[in-house]
Write a structure and sequence with these properties.
This protein is an all-alpha fold. The protein is built from 5 helices and no strands. The chain starts with a helix and ends with a helix.
């Protein structure tokens, strides 16, 4: 029973840290920007281009997930496509936050091993 309470506390702490990091990131990104000018810029965006960009990103991650599925399938591993999609997102995230984009594939391998 105490492990469930500990797990919930860890989860709440993780969410709090994530919210704090998001808040700090937003503050540092937008501290020198004029919010009304940014909102006007967002209003002027062509929705079809935004949706096309989102669709392209979804397809990119899907293609990477398919590659992972084919590679690991040849080694005898059978995992759901959505799990591979999550690994793909994870790799992109870690590549984005590290200098030289060097942590994407190692993080994927680490999480696959877990």
């Amino acid at each position: 029973m105490s492990s469930i309470v500990e797990s919930k506390k860890k989860h709440a702490l993780s969410l709090l840290c994530m919210a704090l990091l998001l808040g700090l990131t937003g503050y540092f990104l937008f501290r020198e920007q004029e919010i009304p000018a940014l909102l006007q810029l967002v209003r002027n965006v062509h929705l079809e281009y935004l949706l096309l960009g989102i669709l392209t990103m979804v397809a990119f991650f899907g293609c990477e997930a398919l590659c992972l599925k084919i590679l690991t399938g040849s080694l005898g591993y059978r995992i759901s496509f959505m799990r591979y999609y999550a690994y793909s997102l994870m790799g992109f995230y870690f590549s984005s936050i590290t200098p030289g984009c060097c942590a994407g594939q190692p993080s994927q391998i680490f999480y696959m091993g877990r």
